[in-house]
Amino acid sequence: MQINYVLALFSAVLAGSVSASPATDAHARTVRVQLVNNHSGANKNAQVPVNGDRYPVPEIWGDFPQATSVQLTADFQGVTCSVWGPGWGTTVNDQHTWANFKGGALVDVCYGY
Question: Which keywords does this Swiss-Prot/TrEMBL entry list (predicted)?
Answer without folding.
Answer: Signal
